[in-house]
Amino acid sequence: MSVRVLIVDDDERERIVVRYVLEQIKDVEIVGEALHGLEALLLCQEKKVDLVFLDISMPEMGGLETAYKLQELKDPPLFVFVTAKKDMAVEAFDLGAIDYIVKPIGQSRIEKTINRAKWLIAHRDSVEELVKQRLKERIDFMLERYKNYEIYSNKLPVREKGKITLLNQDEIIFCESQGKKVYISTTKEGYLSNYTLNELESRLDKSIFFRAHQAFIVNLNFIQEIINFGEGSYLLHLNNSEKNIILSRSKAKLLRQKMGIQ
C-alpha cells in the first residue's frame, strides 16, 4: 500500500529535508510540494492526497488554519505537523492531526508516522466499503419489494403554474425547504410547491422517505453514499442529483436503524 504525500512548508531547505527522508521510506509517493496553505488546498483538490506534512508558521495561511480547511474538503487527507514549535501540540491534536513532529526530523520518527497513516487509511477504506455494501443490500431489498406493483394512492399532487401535476413518489429524490416554499426534486425535473416539509413528511411513504434534517426529506432509494462531515454530522450523496443532503447528528442514528446499518 502506497501513501500519497504532500509536503507543505514555505522554507525550501526544510522541504528538501522532509522530501529526502520520505524518499528513503518504502511505499511513500510524494505527489507535490506547497509553499503555503492555500496552495496545499488547491493541490489536494487536484490530486489524490493521503497524508499532508504541514509546517505551522507559513505566510498567507498558516498550518493550523490549513488543517482546519483540509477537513472541509470532500475527501479530506490525513495530516501531520512538522514544525520547530514545541508548544502547539495540544492545538494540533485537537484539530485531528495524527502526529506532531518537532524539527529536526529523523527517518525512524517519520516511519512511525507513515505506518500510523497506513493503518488509518486501511481502516477508513474498510469501513466505507462496509457502509456502501449495507446500503446497497438495503436499497436492493426495498426496490424488490416495490417494483412489482404501483401504489396509485401514493401519487403526490403538486400545484404549479395553473396546473396540478401528479408525482410518482418513487421518482422523488429529495424535498428541500426554501423559505416559504418547498422544492421537490424528481428524476425528471424540479417543482416549487406550497407544501411545508411537515405536510410532506406526513403525506410521503414513510417506508422510503426520511427526514434527514430540519430542511430536508430524502428518498432512501437514492442514497449513494453517507460521508462523515465531522463532529457527528454527515452528508448524503444521492444518485441522479448533485445536491448534497445534510444529515443532522440527531438523525444519523435513526437513519442507521432504518437502513439496517450496524
Return the CATH architecture of the largest domain.
3-Layer(aba) Sandwich
Spatial sequence of strands, sheet with the most strands:
2-1-3-4-5
- Average of the residue pLDDT scores: 86
What is the number of helical segments per DSSP (H or I, 4+ residues)? 7
Tally of distinct domains: 2
Q: Which secondary structure elements does this structure contain, and how are they paired or packed?
A:
Layout: E1 3-8, H1 12-23, E2 28-34, H2 37-46, E3 51-54, H3 63-70, E4 78-83, H4 89-94, E5 100-102, H5 107-146, E6 155-160, E7 163-168, E8 172-178, E9 181-186, E10 190-193, H6 197-203, E11 209-213, E12 216-219, E13 223-230, E14 233-238, E15 244-247, H7 249-259
Parallel strand pairs: 1-2, 1-3, 3-4, 4-5
Antiparallel strand pairs: 6-7, 8-9, 8-12, 9-10, 11-12, 13-14, 14-15
Verbal overview:
The protein is an alpha/beta fold and 262 residues long. It folds into 2 domains: 3-124, Rossmann fold, CATH 3.40.50.2300; 150-259, OB fold (Dihydrolipoamide Acetyltransferase, E2P) (Beta Barrel). It has 7 helices and 15 strands. It has helices at residues 12-23, 37-46, 63-70, 89-94, 107-146, 197-203, 249-259; strands spanning 3-8, 28-34, 51-54, 78-83, 100-102, 155-160, 163-168, 172-178, 181-186, 190-193, 209-213, 216-219, 223-230, 233-238, 244-247. The strands form 4 sheets. A 5-stranded parallel sheet has the order 2-1-3-4-5, with helices on both faces. A 5-stranded antiparallel sheet has the order 10-9-8-12-11. It has a 3-stranded antiparallel sheet with strand order 13-14-15. Strand 6 (155-160) and strand 7 form a beta hairpin. The chain is elongated, with a radius of gyration of 23 Å. The two termini are 28 Å apart. Mean pLDDT is 86; it is low at 146-152.
